[in-house]
Amino acid sequence: MLLGQLQLLAQEMTDEEAAVAAGGVLAAIVAFIATFALILAGMALFYCVCFWKVFSKADQPGWAAFIPIYNIVVMLQIVGRPTWWVLLCLIPFVNFIVFIILFLDLAKSYGKDTMFALGLILLTPIFLPILAFGSAQYGGPSVLDDSGGAPA
């Protein structure tokens, strides 16, 4: 029924009216994509600034937060995981598990408990700035080192 009405409407439109309608639809699509891109860019900048502060607290270069892949390497160094885990972060679905483990380790590295880590995983936009700009101090890697020592 709807398709028939659209065909009837299209038959009644002149070429100029159809061009104006198509231009309006195209403008709406471009506006939506531009708005979505601006929101994503703002979120990315927010996370980069937060990770800059988290990296700086751990005596790592803050600018590393802006470099793809290298920021994961720095995060792995902060929590004490092996660097080859970067490869795991590139595998779909496996990366979700790896990032959950990394956020758990990150919270422990800054002296936070498991509930804070859960908040960091589920409510990242709230808990990441708390970790970054709060009073949390870096206490060293939270996982076992290669010598078999106890967690920090």
Write the layout of secondary structure elements.
Elements: H1 2-12, H2 15-57, H3 70-79, H4 85-89, H5 94-109, H6 114-122, H7 124-133
What does this structure look like?
With 152 residues, the protein is mainly α. The protein has a domain at 46-133. 68% of the residues lie in helices and 0% in strands. Helix 2 (15-57) runs parallel beside helix 7 (124-133) and helix 5 (94-109) crosses helix 6 (114-122). Mean pLDDT is 87; it is low at 146-152.
Shape by Cα distribution: elongated
Instruction: Tell me the number of helical segments per DSSP (H or I, 4 or more residues long).
Output: 7
Helix content estimate: 55-70%
Round the mean pLDDT to the nearest integer and report it: 87
Taken as a percent bin, the fraction of beta residues is under 5%
Number of strands: 0
Oligomer: single chain
Work out the radius of gyration: 24 Å
Are there runs of 5+ residues with pLDDT below 50, and where? 146-152
List its salient traits.
disordered C terminus; 0% strand; 7 helices; 152 residues; elongated; mainly alpha; single chain
